[in-house]
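Two folds, back to back.
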Amino acid sequence: MTQTQMVGYLADKIGISKKEAKLTIDELNALIVRELKKEGSIRFAGLGIFRKRKLKARIGRNPATGEQIKIPARTRLRFTPAKALKDSVLGIAAAAAKTNPTAAKSVKKK
């Protein structure tokens, strides 16, 4: 789904203009960025958690030459989906597979 499609959907669903819907999405994006910079995480009930994660410096290898290289420390963004989101998107089979790995083998795709 593109941003234009999202704006159109929100405008139709809520009954506001497309300009107001775009401003709403832009403000939501700004809020997420501001909170991640300030607090380091933001939680959306039923959706999940966005958080900053610090990675330590480490030694890696250049796959082409095999030469060791130093990978510097950096901060990455991580999203952890909420259980409600995972269950609604992936269905009950995914939840069963997580709790009982043998159950996933017995569930067949149609």
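---
second:
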Amino acid sequence: MRMNQMYYLVIELCFLVGMTQAATKESQRLEAGASIDGRDYNVWEENYTIQALLGAAKYENLTFNVDGATQEIDLSLMPQLGGVWGTAPRGDYFQYGLECSFLFGFMTDDIWFYSTGGSSWIRVSASVWMVDFAGGGYLSLYLNKNRSARIYIAGGPLMTYLDYSSDSDEDAPIPEYDDQDESAFGVGVYARAGFEFRVYDAGMLGMGIRGTWSTINLSNVGGNSDLTGIAAFVSFTAGF
């Protein structure tokens, strides 16, 4: 009888030791920033990240002359979407890396105005689309121990391509108005910042802002040479 009791006691002690060791390992893993299913939040599996951006940009004085200098089309507010590719973050809670981005924006607008030269009302349909490529470095800082929230900043050089076109109402043409079409490249810099929180092991959701400062020449249609804008975005970052 005593042998059976000792046998069961040894089994119970082994079980308690095993459970204690497992709990200790789990606690250490969570303190190191790992999730419940065993992934380390600080490791992107294939050494790069992709961030999707969706938002809108507001540009200063992105206006185009119509019918001489008497009328203008304002296309300053432009929806944008794109993505950012980044190298794997280096570091622990404070991290850094390199990134490159692509953003596409498109805007249309119709205006009606009375032409004194043609003595009639005319409608002008205008559109502008813009592509910018940018790249630089980024810095990221996790705000808590388990790396579930972070803030980041980034910046570097920028190249912009912009295309503008407008067409008059064919039913009410006027002699002094010509359809317009012009495109140009520009160079400048960008800077951005944002906040994200983790929604699953390899993915973070957040919001950010982005400023651009570039020079572009659209002299034929009266666009500004200095193209300055600020954008607000919803972002989703995934590690691969």
